[in-house]
Amino acid sequence: MKSENFSTFNRRAVHTALASALALGMAGHGSNAHAASASNDATATVVAPIAIAATNTLRFGSFSTSAAGQTVTINANTGARTNSGALLATSTTGRATYNVTGEGALTYAITLPSNGTVNITTGAADATRTMAVSDFTSFPATTGTLTAGAQTLGVGATITTVTGQVAGAYTGTFNVTVDYN
Questions:
Q1: Residue 124: per-residue pLDDT
Q2: pLDDT digits (tens, 9 = 90+) for 73-132
Q3: Which helix (H) or strand (E) holds 117?
Q4: Which of 23, 73, 105, 114 matches a 20 to 30 Å C-alpha distance to 91?
């Protein structure tokens, strides 16, 4: 009889263990029945890179000076020249122009040189052979729009003479940067 009780006890233990395992398994399935998931899409748009190419140089033209502080200014929109000293009417003047290209209808920011950071020189760079280029302006002013993927950007500035400004052809470079807004 003792062996019968032991066998009954073993069957009961096995049945209890199986019932517990089944209940635990069902509990796991029951909680997944309340879970939900959804799919979604990921998208991206690649636009044409923005580019800038110089098409005309900034030309202050020919002029004479008799004193320090005389100025010559080129208008960024029209390329017209104004001055505080004597001008030669036959000289070629004009704004710097650039062809800006990129993705159509996007806007871009324009970064010009800081005032007083660009010098143009003739010969050795000393005070009388250097003129400061300052007050850079652009047209459009600070933000451009790439209508049909392109726009002409105009740049103007002012140069200022010093006492004893040496006669000669003055040259120098400056940078203009554009970047999408």
A1: 77
A2: 999 999 999 988 766 666 789 999 999 999 999 999 999 998 777 999 998 768 788 899
A3: none
A4: 114
Structure tokens at 20: 């517990």
CA 51 to chain centre: 10
Which residues 6+ apart lie within 8 Å of 170 measured at CB?
Answer: 120, 121, 122, 131
| Residue among 50, 154, 153 at smallest CA distance from 101 | 50
Judge contact between 112 and 176, C-beta under 8 A. Answer: yes
Does the predicted TM-score (pTM) go above 0.90?
A: no
**Phi and psi, residue 87, nearest 5°:** -120, 150
- In SS3 terms, 43-112 reads as CCCCCCCCEEEEEECCECCCEECCCCCCEEEECCCCCCEEECCEECCCCCCECEEEEEECCCCCEEEEEC
The rounded distance, in Å, linking the Cα atoms of 33 and 75 is 73
Residue 147 corresponds to which amino acid?
T
In whole angstroms, what is the distance from residue 73 CA to residue 55 CA? 20
HEC profile for 2-48?
HHHHHHHHHHHHHHHHHHHHHHHHHHHHHHHCCCCCCCCCCCCCCCC
| pLDDT (tens digit per residue) in 134-145 | 999 999 999 999
